[in-house]
């Protein structure tokens, strides 16, 4: 169950300040140094070095089982790492000789089911994190927090009267009123339908920016990570694959896994000839590698250029599907076992054309060493 825990002993609340507003002095850096976690006889996390500067939003991204929630739990103190150190505000909260329990870390937690207390009104839910304040001040701060998320009028209602989006707003208010130094959110939007999810993502970013909170948000959705995070940390099998801005991860993925996490790709073999990588769809990109070097090419579906009359190689259209703003083509190309997938604008190719030419848009192609496509 999610609760909001705060280090009430260390900090005094300023009840006169806007609770989700002006006072921004509380955010702290969160840092993992060579963190490892073994459980059930196996390594869940290994060698995690990661920093979230104060006031930034970091998204932890990765497939199911990659260790995202474990890292979040380690940051909160619910779980204890077996190697390395965790620092908040530059001070150890967990390491070989020190372990600060969750309530002493000044972190706020928000989970995917929001975990509001069903028997408490919204006001009381939000007040829960403010127990160190005098009762009157608790109410005042909680009302102001609900006002900020647009739910002041529902203060006396109970959680089951609310829609998913409204519950998310209350959970957000409850997590932020105690002014946690770091806010940890585990898949906070996954229980919402897609339209509401979009709305709540924007609203959440707005509130986090406004409060200048440090936040670490777990998600398995690459687009969500790109929309939310100042930086994204991509995990695979308990290891950090790449950390950077959305643009860096999208434009300069370090390996085939990172490239395929951000968009669908065709994986093609290639080799270097006369200063260029050449594959079954022709020339891919310039290359400083020596002739004969074998490489793997990740080619986004948008990076397959398709034309009725010009291109590097011939292809046959096996099928064409209308998928909204683009058409998805499956193409047979000589020398390639599996169909090449291409995403084109409907006007780029007249209907009924089956024999086409294809070539590679180098902007949408990534070249990796060797046959496995690692960095
Ligand atoms: N205390 C534990 N004991 C044993 N195994 C654990 C423990 N904590 C986590 N695991 C295992 O570690 C792996 C990573 O789990 P974790 O929940 O961190 O992944 P995740 O990336 O958040 O996945 P998901 O997106 O599915 O929630 C899983 O296989 C999980 O079963």
UniProtKB/TrEMBL annotation:
GO biological process, one term: quaternary ammonium group transport
InterPro entries for this protein: AAA+_ATPase, ABC_transporter-like_ATP-bd, ABC_transporter-like_CS, ABC_transpr_FbpC, ABC_transpr_MalK/UgpC-like, Mo/tungstate-bd_C_term_dom, P-loop_NTPase
Alphabetized CDD domains for the sequence: ABC_Carb_Solutes_like
Segments forming domain ABC transporter: 30-262
Any one GO cellular component localisation term in the record: ATP-binding cassette (ABC) transporter complex, substrate-binding subunit-containing
Gene Ontology molecular function, alphabetical: ABC-type ferric iron transporter activity; ATP binding; ATP hydrolysis activity
SUPFAM superfamilies xrefs: MOP-like, P-loop containing nucleoside triphosphate hydrolases
Annotated SMART domains: AAA
Alphabetically ordered keywords of this record: ATP-binding, Cell membrane, Membrane, Nucleotide-binding, Translocase, Transport
Family stated for the protein in its record: Belongs to the ABC transporter superfamily.
Protein name: ABC transporter ATP-binding protein
